[in-house]
Design brief:
The structure holds 2 protein chains of 2 kinds. By secondary structure, chain A is mainly alpha-helical. Chain A is built from 2 helices and no strands. Chain B is mainly α. The N and C termini of chain B lie far apart (about 40 Å). The chains are: A mainly alpha, B mainly alpha. At the A-B interface, helix 2 of A face helix 3, helix 4, helix 8 and helix 9 of B.
């Protein structure tokens, strides 16, 4: 058995050790990515709001019939 | 305001200053988290010898125990900042308390899942309703309760105050989790590492565990900075400095 195979086998406990590490990394990746996506969404919505506001100010308000 | 509080602390409480400060801290905290993480994982998975009883299964300890410590540490941090938020009505303390909750919930979740994966080969069961496991599950539910209560309010600041109150009451569970293995007869093993005394662990196993502990601490600092910055942008959306950021990032 090669050194790598020996390492990956984890003394027969591979099916417990590696899923544990996978969960650890997966959860932390989500924790790192979620605020980045939220930041992008917040700034995009804010830009949309600012653009609509600027458009309203450029155009004179429609005449009331 | 009291004169004994240094001026820089007052300034740090203002959202634009904190936004810049957190932006400067974040890459360093993240860099240290990755550095300690790589060192700790190499030490724990490759260099440390197998346990004489548990073989290689014990290597789950290098993520399980640091995550468990963080689930309690983050809860304490959330409780303290929630207290500050309720007493002094500081907006930034509300942000720190509410943005700590998802990180703490993530660590509590990791603790329960990795513990379950460790328990199956060692105890022969994925789960048992003993004191340590149950109190950690309650800790996860407390985090979820804080997050849920925060989002249940139309007014964000009102929600933050209500959720801070729940967070403070839930602090009682942190010592229960910690001492559960002492107070009750549980299936869970007792503490291996003792800060104030002799640790029942050889150095080759102990130092990777400590490196991973530092890595998770730094990760919390980095994640909290990122989340607090994002939340400040949402709260201060009407202010000129946030509009400038939105327009600068839109131009890119």
């Amino acid at each position: 058995m090669s050194a790598l195979q020996h390492f990956l086998a984890m003394g027969g406990y591979a099916m417990y050790v590696w899923p544990a590490y996978a969960v650890f990394f997966a959860v932390l990746v989500v924790d790192g990515v979620a605020p980045r996506l939220r930041r992008r969404r917040i700034l995009r919505e804010l830009r949309g709001r600012l653009a609509r506001q600027a458009a309203r100010e450029r155009r004179p308000s429609p005449p009331a019939n | 305001m009291a004169t004994w509080i240094p001026l820089w602390l007052h300034k740090l409480g203002s959202p634009p200053t904190f936004y810049r400060f957190a932006g400067a801290v974040m890459p360093w905290a993240m860099g240290l988290a990755l550095l300690f993480g790589v060192i700790g994982l190499y030490g724990g998975l490759v260099l440390a010898p197998p346990d004489y009883q548990q073989g290689d299964a014990y290597r789950i300890i290098f993520i399980h125990v640091p995550s468990a410590w963080m689930s309690m540490f983050v809860y304490a941090a959330m409780g303290v900042s929630g207290f500050v938020a309720l007493v002094w009505r500081i907006k930034l303390a509300e942000v720190v308390a509410m943005e700590s909750a998802p990180i703490g919930a993530a660590f509590a979740f990791i603790t329960l899942v990795t513990g379950s994966l460790w328990g199956k080969p060692m105890w022969g069961t994925w789960w048992t309703w003993d004191a340590r496991l149950t109190s950690e599950l309650v800790l996860l539910f407390l985090y979820l309760g804080v997050i849920g209560l925060y989002h249940a309010f139309e007014d964000r600041r009102q929600g933050a105050r209500a959720a801070s109150f729940l967070a403070i009451i839930g602090v009682i569970n942190v010592p229960i989790v910690h001492f559960s293995v002492v107070w009750w007869n549980t299936l869970h093993q007792g503490s291996t590492v003792n800060i104030f005394g002799h640790s029942k662990m050889p150095w080759e196993m102990l130092w990777p565990l400590l490196a991973m502990t530092l890595a998770t601490k730094c990760w919390y600092a980095a994640s909290l900075c990122r989340r607090a910055r994002t939340d400040i942008l949402a709260l201060e959306g009407g202010k000129d400095w946030v509009r400038a950021i939105a327009e600068a990032e839109g131009a890119r």
